[in-house]
Every structure is written in structure tokens, then in C-alpha cells.
Amino acid sequence: MTRLIAALSLALFAGTAFAQTAPSFEQADADASGSLSLEEAKVALPTLDEAAIVAGDANNDGAIDADEYALLVGG
Fold it and tell me: Can you list the domains of the chain with their CATH numbers?
């Protein structure tokens, strides 16, 4: 729950800027696995630090899915 709140807060404060510059989820998912690894997320969202990306993993599965990515980019 704390991670979800952190991700939502991040999206509220920085979402507009990311939404304008961040690649689509499909573009960011370089290996077409259906989720982003930490490395793929770092490439797609270079202005976010690792802690913010990890906090965006709301279900704690070690990957960023499309819904989590949308929250991170504010879309």
C-alpha cells in the first residue's frame, strides 16, 4: 500500500512532464515480455531514480506492468 501511495504521489507531482516525453509502454518493453524490468524502466524513464521505479512496482513482483507504468508516467 505504501508503494502504491508513493507511486501515485510521484505521478501527481511529475506525471505531466513524463507523459509528454515518456515512450509508450509497448516501446519501453524492449523484449516484449509484457512487463518492464528495472533496466527497461530506467531506460524509458531516465529522470526517475531507481527508488522511485521500485516504489512504482505496486504489486511487488519485481517488474513494472502496464498499469504501474501508466501511474509512473501520469497517463
Answer: 2-73 (1.10.238)
